[in-house]
Amino acid sequence: MAAYDLKDDGELIALLVAGDRSAFTEIFNRYNKLLYSHVLNKIRDEDAAEDLVQDIFVVLWEKRSLVQNINLSGYLFTMTRNRILNMLSHSKIVSDYASAIKNYEQPSYPIADELIQEKQLSAIIESEINALPPRMREVFVLSRYKHLSNKEIAARLGLSEHTVADQIKKSLKTLRFRIGVRILISCTTTF
């Protein structure tokens, strides 16, 4: 058995790409505490920091075939930074949404009405996503539901990254417009 703790990052990456679990374990042991302390320093939540670091290592294992010829520490810290930014952005959106809901008081609407409206909105969104052209819908679903990067989508579908980015941009623009129109129409017909 090879002494994995004596191998440099480049050797560990080569073994990781080949599916070597011991190399993955060594990478985890080498970077776990460092990434955890970095994340904890930024978000100040032990459980969330632990979850975020675990997610990073899960993604590293799942995408191990894509990490050839990389600077491992740079890759892990970039992935960590991006996850932290996504988490903070999401937290702000949730917080803003919760504040808006808290400040929005309209006692004439019972909870059942809100649930019906939520289901109707979800149905409208799903309907409009299904109405997208097939390739655009496929790119959108891979991006927004499967959380693949533009590069991964391009590789999977045999497209250029520019085409993928363009398809996502067009689909978002189309969905915003169509959903907005449908909501506007439904609001004018209910009054």
TrEMBL record:
Signal peptide as annotated in the record: none
Transmembrane domains' residue ranges: none
Source species, domain of life: Bacteria
Gene Ontology terms, MF aspect: DNA binding; sigma factor activity
Gene3D superfamilies reported in the protein's UniProt record: 1.10.1740.10, Winged helix-like DNA-binding domain superfamily/Winged helix DNA-binding domain
UniProt-recorded name of the protein: RNA polymerase sigma-70 factor
Family: Belongs to the sigma-70 factor family. ECF subfamily.
Start and end residues of each RNA polymerase sigma factor 70 region 4 type domain: 124-175
Pfam families the UniProt entry points to: Sigma70_r2, Sigma70_r4_2
GO BP, one annotated term: DNA-templated transcription initiation
InterPro entries, A to Z: RNA_pol_sigma-70-like, RNA_pol_sigma-70_dom, RNA_pol_sigma70_bacteroid, RNA_pol_sigma70_r2, RNA_pol_sigma70_r4_t2, RNA_pol_sigma_r2, RNA_pol_sigma_r3/r4-like, WH-like_DNA-bd_sf
